[in-house]
Amino acid sequence: MTNPHAPAAPATDATFTPPSLGRRFGALIIDWVLCLLAANIFADPVRDGWAPVLVLVLVYAIFLGLFAQTPGMYITKIRCVGWADGGRIGLLRGLIRGLLLALVVPALIMDEHRRGLHDRLTDSVIVDAPRR
What we know:
mainly alpha, two-stranded antiparallel sheet, elongated
């Protein structure tokens, strides 16, 4: 039985409009600052540049995989869902998405739905978070 109140999958929703790049970038900045602070616990982020990147990849894997939002996405009211079904992307796709995002270039190559290469390769999309 399907839920009549569930949002349509972005791939099949003709009215789908992606959130602004400003909100996406804002979420990334918030997440990056939090990752710098967390990495400071076990490494010097200035000297060990890998530490905050590792934390960012792990945050994306865990938070996107389990909750469809990173802390920054929660604050900016966006979420990352599966393109085909609108559901959570899971831990593995969250990890792959985080690894690709760490490369930066995939995020700059976007399509008409503002899906970066990292989104397309993991079959995901950024959408507005439901208001509560």
